[in-house]
Amino acid sequence: MKVAGLDWATASKDRAIAIIEWDCNKIFIRCIRNNVSDRCIKRLCTDNKLSVVAVDTPFGWPKEFSRFVYSWRPCQQTAMPPCSCNFRYRLTERFVQKKAKLNPLSVSSDRIASSARAWARIVYCRNLFKQISIFKSSENRKLPEIIEVYPAATLSVMGYKAKGYKTGDNTKQAREKAQQTRKEIIEKFCRDFRISQAFSICRTHVPTHALKESDHCLDAFLCAFTALLHKREINGWTVWYPEDCLDVIPEDRREKLKEQIQDEGWIFFPKKKGDRCPVSFFDCRCRKSR
């Protein structure tokens, strides 16, 4: 079984893809590639040899944000702005905050909105809608499922360093520190999950050390690894599904929240076997609107 991960960005030079394979109870890294064009992404998302393509970008916007922006008129008394939490974050991001102890970028108020818009354009132009999965799915597909993932959440929940592996500061010292962090992450991953870095021979593939040299390539690998957990349990790890959370919600609220998740999208990230969803994870902590 082969799955792929896509570290998405608006600029091709900031994108990367990874393909890994599960074979004989072992994980093989088959391809790592950066500087990925739209055409390459279309081929990836429609490759019937892949079971899943996991993408690191928001698939939707907060429902209350969308509703407010649609109805707002600056010269009319139209709609009261939603609270900051509901304006900035989707339900899935609030769940990530509680379980992974991270604060995802807001698709409605941070620069990642441009990335989400660019991805939405790809989905629309390539007609990928029917391939996107939000809930559990057992149906057989001719084309790969496409799911939303969050690499930092994968690292955090599984006990790896979720911060410091990206090269934000461009100084030599910062680059070397980030590179060392990536090296430690990938080496521990390979030990923990018996991962073989067996690359196909192809001049378009970057060398094995790309996972340590590039945070984009490492993110793509983490996306692919999460895609694999979506298809099978490994070492007691699977992924969180909306159903895991909706099952603990009172029935009178369940259908409405399910529709909201359907509209906003869902972040798939690792779940340890036996872990349970907190009942209060949907609750908004804002005291008042601003």
Please characterize this protein's 3D structure.
The chain has 290 residues and is α/β, with parallel strands linked by helices. It has one domain (2-282). Helix content is 39%, strand content 15%. It has eleven helices and nine strands. It has a seven-stranded mixed β-sheet. A two-stranded antiparallel sheet has the order 7-9. A hairpin with a 2-residue loop joins strand 2 and strand 3. The chain is globular.
Number of separate structural domains = 1
In terms of quaternary structure, the protein is single chain
Overall morphology:
globular
Rg, Å, rounded = 19 Å
Q: Name the strands of the widest sheet in spatial order.
A: 6-3-2-1-4-5-8
| Secondary structure: number of strands | 9
The portion of residues forming beta strands comes to: 15-25%
Helix proportion range: 25-40%
Produce a short descriptive summary.
The chain has 290 residues and is α/β, with parallel strands linked by helices.
